[in-house]
Amino acid sequence: MEKKFANIPVKDLNDNVFKQIGDDWMLITAGDQGNFNTMTASWGALGILWHLPVAFCFVRPHRYTFEFMEASDFYTLCFLEDQ
């Protein structure tokens, strides 16, 4: 079964990204279906740049995930709900 990404308009997001990134952390994943890596992170941002929505994070070159990000056109930032 093929899985697809869901497109969520950024203006539909109502979460506190300062809490999510800084306190709750996020997951950064890069790669493809057969070869990928995920890491936790508590640095990055969501915002508007030149009238466009942007998301960014910083990954040090010595982190294993870095090579996956460099080889990929896309990466994901995941925020999990409190349980």
TrEMBL record:
InterPro entries: Split_barrel_FMN-bd (IPR012349). Gene3D superfamilies: Electron Transport, Fmn-binding Protein, Chain A. The keyword Transmembrane applies. Keywords: Membrane, Transmembrane, Transmembrane helix. The chain crosses the membrane at residues 41-59. SUPFAM superfamilies: FMN-binding split barrel. This is Flavin reductase like domain-containing protein. It comes from marine sediment metagenome.
